[in-house]
Amino acid sequence: VASRRAEAARLCRGATSARARDARSFRVLQELLGDDFDPGRHRLGVDVAFGMEPRRRPGGLDPTLDRWVLERDEESGPVVVGLNVSGLVWHSDARAPSYGFVLDYRSLVRALVDWLLDATDARIALVPHVVAPPGHYESDPGANDALLAELVSARGDAVRERVVALAPPFEPEEIKAEIARMDWVDGTRMHATIAALSTGGPTSAIAYSPKFRGVFERADQADGLADPTRMDERTALRTLRVSFTEREAGRARLAAALPSIKETVTAQIDSILGA
To answer: Which of 3, 13, 65, 219 has most Cβ atoms within 10 angstroms of its Cβ?
Structure first.
């Protein structure tokens, strides 16, 4: 750890510009640099993914999802939930020291899906973010397929009327456009959640890394962070359930926070391009 911190400090000292995407990360940057911190070069910013514009693919990515959204919008049908499952975490030993989990990730994901299916009428789109070759441990589509297979085994094929797995290929802007259509999103990949936050969607996260908190605090969504490194399954599930049931309050808080975030990302990019 010490060698990695030293390398990070060396790179930041030598960079023309170094920007942190949230206040917590900015404090780390200041601590890393110490007396070498230069406010002219080392700045507080936001993740540039907030500035990526969604682009809908003509015809969409999945006809079932399109039907759900149409029924929701035109017929006051059930809400549509986006669930991003991390292949990296799903395919790992969730209690491994590298993660420090005190709960089982797969069990928590299944418990959330079971609750949504049993206690609500929500429809669930499994949204991949990292696309890797079939069988690769990083593959989000592989994790989605495994989860859907478990659901079908437990509940029968009828579960496919309520759960769909979005499949590649797609461009980042295209999957962001689909995420933007969701009424609520829970993600484990950081940038799947940023796709939701940046398009105004109430968002929660199974936040296995400290990197989530600063971003979610800036977006005023930190109440929806379920931390598997310190919460048991019951507590984590309750956090996610509250985020879902209070999603409209979350949407309002996010709407108030987004203008400042968007202004910052625009100014940041202008500054970088003008440097």
So the answer is: 219
